[in-house]
Amino acid sequence: MKRALTILWLLALAAVSPLIFPIAESGRSSMDVLAKLALLPAAALLLITVGLLHRVDDSLARLSAAGLAAGAIATVALEAIRLPGFCFGFMPGNLPRLMGVLLLNQFAAGPSLTSDIAGWAYHFWNGATFGLIYVLIFGTCHRWVGAVFGVVLGFGFMFSPVVSALGVGFLGLEFSKGFPLTVTFAHAAFGLALGWLSAAWLGFVDSPMLGAVRQRLPKRLVAQGFSPPGPADRP
Asked: Could you tell me the residue ranges of all domains in the chain?
């Protein structure tokens, strides 16, 4: 039970960062307020929790650190597709720059070096938290799951209040037919890189979340179909 609660705690803290942008764009609050009240406290608590897990030599510490690092680095793969898409006019704006302006509440003044740094830091932290979420829920047994995870994130973004606030129409098609393609391929690249990096660093690890659930199930149910995949089941 303790391990399952720890995983849920980590997942809850990791989910805060990706959620504040769509919440702000839905009009429920401003991003600078959400950053102060939710983003920064959640990020601090997440890092403190991983540090404490490392001190007690919990395996979740290594999984969490690897997931965070893999997600941050995989964001480079996403940018390798998103930035050219933006330059070719497939995207309506530079989202990291916009997020920085919103984080520092300087929309009227416009972007600055400080807001750009804040926006890009938030962008990469989002990638890191998605990496943590991926590793804790899915493990690393199947690299292709990373690509599916990335595509799901892309569609989640396109159906979020962020795209609605940009005024680009359904799936961004009113702005450019290249919008949904850029978003989908960029997030698929993120997921592929995430799946490959996490597997390379951690080996084939079964889902920590499912593993914690199995520990709470009766042994009879585990024996009938809830056991971890064996070596023959792995790619």
From this structure: 2-208
